[in-house]
Amino acid sequence: MNTKKIGFIGGGNMASSLISGLIASGHPADLLWVSDTNQNALDALSAKLHVNVSVDNSVVVNEVDVIVLAVKPQILHSVATQIASIVQQRNVLVVSIAAGISQESLAKWLGSAIAIVRCMPNTPALVRTGATALHANAAVNDAQKNLAENILRAVGISLWVEHESELDAVTAISGSGPAYFFLLMEAMEQTASELGLREDTAQLLIQQTALGAAKIALESDESSRQLRQRVTSPGGTTEKAIQTFEEGRFKQLVAKALHAARDRSVEMSKQLGEK
Predict the structure, then answer these.
(1) Segment 147-169, tens digit of pLDDT
(2) Would you say residue 46 lies in a domain?
(3) The domain containing residue 229 runs over which residues?
């Protein structure tokens, strides 16, 4: 992989994180390319990471083995149609991290025979603790799958789903998921002040508790249910809090929220692909 030339169309936060992760994992900076309409953003990337930059997407596509589409979904159609002829001529692998844009739409804009991997990363990728699901179309070979997976592994874990439709569920679970945890943390912080804790004290306690709980879950072979039961002593404070959550139909509310997010993902995919 370290000999592959990788290009990014779009030099925003996610692209910058992927590039930083790739360089940290040993990928040579001189084999990385970025294009963006914002010259200041390109200058900053060039100065900080020493990658090749250009305001011309075509220049980047002509140089690389794989192109990562890292632009906003709303402008992906115009970007894809602009580079389509070069992508077809050079037969490069296309990796899309644009939310809601289906492989069908990408193939319609880029060419039906193009190897396309669609990914759903999440914002913790910005601190290299991301979770990304990938799906490849039939034109992607094993070596290209390996390449796409390694690119996303530079910022966290990556795994493949069997059906593209599963990415809508992934969007609801991990794509939007960080916001759910932030909401719980926000609610705990607000209540902590009512309980007499200083704001900075509460924030640090809650953040470290969230980190610790996630670390235990990652390193344990037990299910979330088992872990929750393990720290819930009969008749204790935790049990009382859990009972209160359950009386408020907490699990049913979570299920309703995740279904709503999944349905919106499906709806957005249809809207964004109608071009």
Answers:
(1) 999 999 999 999 999 999 999 99
(2) yes
(3) 175-269
